[in-house]
Amino acid sequence: MRPAPGGSPRHRVFVWLVALAVLHALVVFAGVISPYAPEEQDRDHAYAPPTRIHWIDSRGGFHPRPFIRPWLSLEGGLGEFAEDPAQQIPLRFLVAGAPYRLLGVIPCRLHLFATEGARISLLGTDGYGRDQFSRLLYGGQISLLAGWLAAALALLGGTIIGTAAGFLGGWADDALMRVAELFLALPWLYLLFALRAFLPLAVSPLQAFFLVVGVIGAVGWARPARLVRGVVLSAKERDFVRAARGFGASEGYLLRRHVLPETASVLLTQAAILVPQYILAEVTLSFLGLGVPEPAPSWGNLLASLQQYSVLASYWWMCLPAVIMVPFFLGYLGLASALQAWTGPVKIAGGGSGSAE
Amino acid sequence: MRYLLRRALHALLLLFGVSLLTFMFAAMAPGNYLDEMRLNPQIAPETISALRAQYGMDRPFPVRYLRWLGSVLRGEWGFSFAYNRPVASLLVVRARNTLLLAATATALAWLLALPLGVWSAERAGHWPDRLVSAGSAALLVIPELVLALGLLILAVRSGWFPAGGLESLGSGSLSAGRKIADLARHLTLPVAALVLSSIPLLIRHVRAAVAEVLGSGFLWAAEAHGISRRRLLWRHALPAAANPLISLFGFSLGGLLSGSLIVEVVMSWPGLGPLLLEAILTRDLYVVIGCVLLSTLFLVGGNLAADLLLYWADPRIRWEGPEP
Amino acid sequence: MEPLLSVAGLVKQYVRTGPAGGSRGILTALDGVTFTLAAGRTLAVVGRSGSGKSTLALCIAGLERPTAGSILVEGRDMASLGATELRALRPRIQLVFQDPAASLNPRFTAEQLVAEPLQVQGRVPARERPGRVRLLMECVGLSAAMRSRTPGEFSGGQRQRLAIARALALEPRVLILDEALSALDCSVQAQIANLVAELQPALRLSCLFITHDLRMAGWLADEIAVMERGRIVEMGSSEAVVESPQHGVTQFLVAAARARGAAPPQAGR
Asked: Per-residue pLDDT tens for B176-203?
């Protein structure tokens, strides 16, 4: 048999993991890569387009070190900008700049690149003149972390409930699965909004972050619970569980040593599916004003200004946060497929085999 | 027949359960709704006392729920504080618009997914299959939000399509034909966003289902009888794949309704989505519950229709019924 | 002397549930089974599929609770025991399943599998376990060098040897082999059968050998009990049962063992 295209399943998983790790590294090291703190404003340069990087000066000379020309506001106050031809500000790399905390803990001052005398905005600025590039990276920290935490919460809840339902059986199983069915009866986003609707709206960014994580995690337990329950039900009947009963193993031991390990592959695949879904949920909530509020950056509220027609029509760089999500989702999707191929069809009780989707 | 009645009853119970669940979420709201409303200058004190009497807003949970349920049965669905009228009157128009959008998008998505999926399955491993798979994968990773924004920018920049809304200004005076054309122009982008976001999953499943059937034995027998390829595919293979596809319909409907929420908001399509958002921001309790419940009604209804279709299409369900 | 195992009037019924959850009737797997097993003896329980022999094995091993009747192990009634007492009794009776691939957790190594009963019962201290495992593996003819392999890396026969080693870990008095040879190739069957035959006197085991193969039963067992539809229809010494079968089912099984293509009796089903 020819090997599968792209290498063995395990190899593919590894490849996607590496790709995702690289993408996430960009966000984790936001402090290093971004030249400015996300809340730094520059009202003189509101809605300035992305700074252009030059290697060739006005006389045609080549400079190995790239340089920028600062934006000047054009007269007439229309908010238009043009480059100042007189100035040439070189790009400096690996400079010490404004302090920040790496990983939120380690104080650091190293920045990948910076300019002196004028600000460099690789992805333009917003209505307050804040550098979108920096905000994008920092915003990624919040959106990605929210997705991960919410997924962890939903998977934890789903595992506990699914295991309880599958292992205990009887009325407990019935009751829990009926409740799960209720949660799954609503369109997912409506369910999310239903819970978010009644919680406080005007909260601080930190509170909002945990609120969003909590809400998403609290409504997302149902599908993982069903899947885990299926795995537990079928694992319970396996001969090796019976054999262990035969030596006098307690139910707790059986659960811990034989049943739960079977859920690992289902949970792993679910994680790869849920994380991007929940990142998107946070982005959607923040976009609509129900998630992380200003001034904290999130990919969602970075896009929020696009709801104004003027911004949508004139300032094209404001939609770049939307584009940045795509490679991440591609990575997660690739990882999820690779995981499904690797772990194979899952034995789920009550209806043949099927991938844990 | 008993099977169908049982499914209908199940659907009804599900709706009750969801309404209860949503009410419980509402009960989690910190603070008292009445107090908040008293602070709101837009709401007259008489309204507040009338509401308190009618909906039992300061009474315990079961009372509030039952009063609301009564209101639903009377056709009012509660009262909107922001609009100062029964919720049902708000819901009707919005629901119609959402239904229009969702139904059109669903129909179009399936109309495109079926041929593409069958074509892909037929030529599995060759370039048409690869092309369709690549295209699907590309669309799959783009979230609805991004698609909607992208299409909106396209509309704004090119001017080919209106940038949102249901109808142009002054369309009331147009003839019926013009009105429909106007509606269609406004419908295009939202439908496109929904179709593009839902089609990848559909294609993938159609392809898988048809590929599985193509690999099974009974088709060879039909082919040996000299039945043409096209007839084979459409009259034999596809119906055999109907079972998982009809289930897929129910499953994908949920995703479509969720997608429609965000598409409606971004593209200013006056459906349930924007109403829900507005109700959340203005703390309009019964409108929120109404929107959520109505969207669930659509989903449950769609699933019930899928069950009906399955019952009709798959003889196994009829014969192997649970009755002893 | 008291028999090691004494089963009297054993009844096991299952309630069949339909897909909608309602009851669909009662399945009687065991319908009053009575026999005794003395120390050091081998009893074979032979029957066709669905005769209830596997259910019998599960009940005696304590993995299913009988609906009625009694199982006396060394004079003590299993049904009357509390949870801790039952747990203490388990080492006495051990079961080897039909399919070793299913009864051995594929994620465990051979060492972990054989040591598991010791770990669960907790009577053997951790540092002594590796030595025990090595002993047990060598006892069943497996090299101790294979202790880090997972079941997937063993052949079918080796897996079953592993399962037997595990079953012997707690030094049982009664070893139940539930179709333990059926999943193996013919040549391997003989090897494992020989292994059991050797181990039995050496470890002073009593064996309950569940099978549908009368030939193997006759070869391995002292006594044979023939089961049909939850009842023992014939019982006697191996020679007697094989040489002169009385009941129709026994005759069918004897014929099936001797030649292929024997017609089943019209058992008025």
From this structure: 777 888 888 889 999 999 999 999 999 9
Beta bridge partners of C61: none
Cβ contact, residue pair A243, C91, below 8 Å: no
Does any CB of chain A come closer than 8 Å to the CB of residue B141? yes
The reply to whether A239 and A276 lie within a common domain is yes
Say whether residue A194 is in contact with chain B using an 8 A CB cutoff. Answer: yes
Of the candidates C1, C3, C10, C2, the residue with the CA atom closest to the CA atom of residue C71: C10
**Contact C143/A at CB under 8 A:** no
Say what the ipTM of the complex is.
0.87
Assigned domain for C265 exists? no
Residue C7: both structure tokens together: 């089963």
Fold topology of B88-318: MetI-like fold (1.10.3720)
DSSP labels for A69-93? --EEEPTTSSS-EEE-TT--EE-EE
| A290 part of a folded domain | yes
Total residue count of chain A as it appears in this document: 357
In this structure, what token pair is assigned to residue B31? Answer: 């603070």
- B322 vs C contacts (CB less than 8 Å): 18-20, 22
Q: How far is A186 from chain B (nearest CA, A)?
A: 5
The model carries a pTM of: 0.86
Which residue type sits at A169? Answer: G
In chain C, which residue's Cα lies nearest the Cα of A262?
C107
pLDDT digits (tens, 9 = 90+) for C66-90: 888 889 888 888 888 887 888 888 8
Contacts of A257 (CB under 8 A, 6+ apart): A244, A249
Share of chain A above pLDDT 90, in %: 45
CA A109 to chain centre: 26
Which tokens sit at C187?
Answer: 């040549």
Q: Cα–Cα distance between C114 and C166 in angstroms, integer?
A: 4
Could you tell me if A336 and A192 lie in one domain? yes
Q: Phi and psi of B270, rounded to 5°?
A: -75, 70
Asked if A238's CB is within 8 angstroms of C95's CB, the reply is no
Q: Please list, in sequence order, all residues whose beta carbon lies within 8 angstroms of the beta carbon of residue C247, skipping any fewer than 6 positions away.
A: C226, C228, C233, C234
**pLDDT for C122:** 84
| A89/A173 same-domain check | no
User: Whole-angstrom Cα distance, residue B26 to residue B32?
Assistant: 11
B262: chain A residues, CB-CB within 8 Å: 189, 284
Average pLDDT over chain B, rounded to whole? 83
Structure tokens at B205: 């499943």
